[in-house]
Inverse folding.
């Protein structure tokens, strides 16, 4: 709309101009009749056009803010067409108005004025002359003796009177002559042609005036298109007025017609002259009506033409705007049969294709979104699975860069902070993790898609037995998924359990095979000792040998008992036990040892445990402590404590402690630092603790040597007996 | 904002100007009729004169154009909250026909049919523009103390062709005057 510039105010200016013209045309009180009607018609047209123009102007100004497609072109067309017509119309109106003014000046020229005045004066002079002649002619007869004599006679001699009147008529050349008495009664009358009227017309005021004034009075009378000059002359005698003489002169028809024509023309001319402004107004307003009608029709036609021309363009612009805003459901219905129509149809085809393409795109997008959602869902599941999986998972791409690493793997192997996504795996596998690099290298270069190995990896002070399984993903070099998936499982417990089971089986079989001959050996040896102890020469050697045999057999029996115990350790039978009772029993058991101090609390917790097995563990620990402190009589201490949801039995001694080399194997079976030890005590104790879902810990290896048996208060997930 | 204020102020000024021009100006230009009411024991009379248009009528008569005055006198009973009630209407039509040739003017009372000729235009003017003690209504038809309204309207026609298209072009003047009165 900006390119319209000042033109957008043009309709409002035209509207105001028309209002001003309407006000200027407003009729005054002197204006009436059809002129007034024409003026009012003009004013109505002007006000209508003004209102239409104002409305259009306001709409143009409004469209300045809210652009409507095609409005600018339409406005330009309408204003151009109306302007093209308005300018010549105004010029034509002005010219016509000037011509009317000039024409009126010519019509009502002063010479015409003068001419008409003179002509009228001529007519007046003619009439005046006739009346003057009539007056002059009648004056001598006012005192006519012949007439007076007849009138004064009683009775009147009508023949003489008529004869005298005929004489006068013939002398004067009048058309009619009558005599009335003082009572206005017709006495006699003659006329030039034809018979007299049987009944005389009544006398008018002029007749009475003549009688009253005593002089000749004339008047003009019209009768059946004829005009006559009538004169009244009183007949005077010494006795006063005795009668009235009435004479008529018929005016010449031609002269009368001319005079009346002059009068009529004069009247009309003067009437027109008086209404000169009205005539001018009539012409001007009529012209204005025509002009306004033409402008109105032209404006209407221009508007229709502009609408028809711009409607497809506006529709196109609107449709393009909607397409630009993303609304592709656009179809232009009206399509003229011309180039614009062709353009409209092309646009419709384009919009249809766009709509189809967009629909296809939208469908694709929906499919992709669904796939993405599904993929995201799957990924979430996978991530949750990986996060909650106890198994360590490592995903490595074909270039050995880590693509995924779950938290379980990080915790399992206590991976350094450098292990993260995007790092090169081969560069990270050093030191204790070197085996992983080797496994990955083997996985990469082998022919099979899967590889499984068991690796021993040190984590802290623990040696974990890790089952590593690797798989090749996709094909090498493929764009989508290619690389290796490596899964780590800690099978240390499993291996240890397998080992324990194997040992237990061995122990059970050994015990079974060895235990049976031991008893006869022992019995036979005792029998030999009893029977032949006194008969042998060297009894001392005999006793020593037999005693050795019996001692070793007993030792073997104990060893086999421990084996059996380890192999057939029963499931704990859990009961709610008062910890203080256990401590009381232990105190009573070791009462003979002054240096064993058992601290029994006033109030103690209860825990779900198998009291016999707990006692066995405590006895084992106390025996070990007493053995370790046998030389220096150092005190041994047993006390109990409660930590959160567990109860702890602590055994301390101030012995020399456990050597550094033995500490790692402390809880292993068949490891013992004592010459006669089976090496199964702590192993059995730990197994009992584990069977209770507790743990046996060496908290300190020297000064003091401190062991702790921790048992859950509620007995873990084990079944109660 | 300022632009809108200017546009509104301009529109208001234009409207005010239009009201002044269209309504007030014609009201001041209207000719007036002098009207009086007179009553005796029997009749109610009307005295009315058109004082300020005589010069124009004299010119028209001198120029030979026939002039007709149609007086219409109405008596209305005034009603406060409703249209007035018409009690009586009297119509008087007077015409002066000039004769330029004889320089005389025929005075015609169209209502009664009486006519006479005068040779002085002043008499013709007086005949047309004045109604002296013109009886309008019998007093017995009006109530004492009740407000009435006398309305005189005058149509001034010029030209012989009264009612014809040519005379319709110029139309005729109309004047109206009202007078409230109450009979004792």
């Amino acid at each position: 709309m900006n390119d319209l510039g000042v033109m957008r105010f043009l309709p409002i200016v035209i509207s105001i101009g028309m209002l001003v013209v309407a006000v200027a045309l407003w009729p005054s009180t002197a204006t009436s009749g059809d002129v007034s009607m024409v003026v009012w018609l003009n004013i109505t047209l002007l006000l209508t056009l003004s209102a239409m123009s104002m409305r259009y102007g306001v709409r143009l100004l409004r469209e300045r803010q809210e652009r409507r497609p095609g409005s600018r072109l339409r406005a330009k067309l309408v204003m151009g067409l109306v302007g093209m017509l308005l300018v010549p119309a105004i010029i034509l109106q002005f010219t016509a108005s000037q011509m009317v003014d000039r024409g009126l000046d010519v019509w009502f020229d002063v010479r015409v004025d003068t001419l008409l005045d003179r002509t009228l004066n001529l007519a007046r002079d003619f009439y005046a002359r006739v009346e003057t002649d009539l007056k002059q002619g009648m004056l001598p007869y006012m005192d006519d003796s012949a007439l007076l004599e007849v009138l004064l006679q009683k009775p009147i001699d009508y023949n003489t009177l008529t004869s005298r009147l005929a004489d006068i008529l013939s002398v004067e050349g009048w058309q009619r002559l009558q005599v009335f008495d003082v009572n206005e009664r017709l006495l006699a009358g003659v006329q030039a042609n034809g018979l007299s009227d049987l009944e005389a017309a009544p006398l008018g005021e002029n007749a009475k005036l003549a009688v009253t004034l005593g002089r000749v009075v004339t008047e003009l009378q019209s009768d059946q298109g004829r005009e006559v000059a009538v004169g009244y002359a009183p007949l005077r005698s010494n006795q006063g007025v005795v009668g009235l003489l009435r004479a008529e002169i018929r005016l010449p028809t031609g002269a009368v017609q001319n005079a009346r024509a002059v009068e009529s023309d004069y009247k009309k001319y003067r009437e027109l002259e008086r209404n000169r402004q009205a005539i001018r107004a009539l012409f001007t307003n009529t012209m204005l009506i025509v002009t306004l009608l033409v402008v109105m029709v032209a404006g209407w036609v221009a508007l229709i033409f502009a609408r028809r021309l711009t409607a497809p363009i506006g529709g196109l612009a609107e449709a393009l705007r909607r397409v630009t805003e993303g609304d592709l459901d656009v179809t232009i219905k009206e399509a003229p049969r011309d180039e614009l129509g062709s353009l409209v149809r092309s646009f419709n085809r384009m919009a249809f294709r766009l709509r189809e393409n967009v629909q296809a795109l939208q469908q694709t997008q929906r499919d992709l979104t669904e796939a993405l959602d599904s993929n995201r869902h799957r990924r979430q599941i996978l991530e949750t699975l990986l996060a909650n999986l106890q198994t360590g998972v490592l995903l490595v791409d074909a270039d050995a860069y880590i693509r995924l690493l779950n938290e379980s793997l990080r915790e399992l192997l206590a991976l350094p902070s450098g292990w993260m996504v995007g790092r090169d795996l081969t560069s990270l596998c050093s030191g204790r993790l070197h085996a992983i690099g080797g496994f990955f290298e083997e996985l990469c270069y082998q022919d099979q898609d899967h590889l499984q190995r068991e690796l021993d990896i040190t984590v802290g002070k623990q040696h974990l037995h890790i089952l590593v399984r690797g798989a090749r993903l996709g094909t090498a070099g493929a764009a989508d998924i290619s690389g290796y998936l490596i899964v780590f499982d800690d099978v240390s417990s499993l291996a240890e359990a397998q080992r324990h089971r194997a040992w237990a089986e061995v122990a059970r079989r050994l015990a079974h095979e060895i235990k049976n001959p031991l008893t006869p050996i022992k019995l036979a040896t005792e029998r030999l000792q009893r029977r032949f102890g006194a008969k042998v020469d060297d009894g001392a050697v005999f006793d020593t040998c037999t005693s050795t045999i019996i001692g070793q057999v007993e030792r073997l029996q104990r060893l086999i008992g421990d084996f059996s115990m380890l192999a057939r350790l029963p499931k704990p039978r859990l009961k709610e036990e008062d910890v203080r009772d256990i401590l009381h029993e232990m105190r009573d058991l070791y009462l003979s040892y002054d240096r064993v101090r058992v601290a029994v609390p006033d109030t103690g917790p209860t825990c779900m445990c198998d009291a016999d097995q707990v006692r066995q563990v405590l006895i084992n620990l106390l025996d070990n402590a007493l053995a370790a402190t046998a030389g220096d009589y150092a005190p041994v201490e047993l006390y109990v404590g409660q930590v959160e949801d567990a109860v702890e039995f602590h055994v301390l001694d101030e012995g020399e402690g456990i050597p550094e080399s033995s500490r790692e194997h402390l809880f292993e079976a068949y490891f013992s630092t004592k010459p006669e030890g089976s090496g199964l005590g702590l192993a059995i104790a730990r197994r009992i603790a584990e069977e209770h879902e507790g743990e046996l810990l060496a908290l300190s290896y020297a000064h003091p040597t401190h062991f702790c048996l921790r048992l859950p208060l509620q007995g873990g997930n084990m079944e109660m007996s | 904002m300022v632009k809108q204020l200017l546009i509104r102020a301009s529109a208001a000024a234009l409207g005010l100007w239009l009201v002044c021009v269209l309504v007030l100006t014609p009201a001041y230009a209207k000719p007036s009729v002098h009207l009086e009411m007179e009553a005796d024991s029997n009749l109610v009379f009307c005295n009315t004169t058109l004082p300020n248009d005589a010069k124009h009528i004299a010119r028209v008569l001198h120029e030979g154009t026939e002039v007709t005055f149609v007086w219409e006198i109405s008596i209305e009973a005034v009603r406060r909250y409703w249209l007035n009630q018409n009690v009586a209407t009297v119509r008087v039509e007077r015409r002066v026909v000039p004769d330029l040739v004889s320089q005389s003017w025929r005075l015609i009372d169209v209502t009664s049919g009486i006519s006479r000729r005068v040779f002085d235009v002043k008499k013709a003017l007086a005949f047309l523009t004045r109604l002296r003690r013109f009886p309008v209504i019998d007093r017995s038809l009006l109530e004492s103390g009740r407000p009435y309204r006398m309305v005189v309207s005058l149509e001034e026609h010029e030209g012989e062709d009264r009612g014809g298209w040519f005379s319709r072009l110029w139309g005729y003047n109309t004047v109206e005057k009202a007078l409230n009165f109450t009979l004792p």
About this structure: DSSP finds 18 helices and 17 strands in chain A.
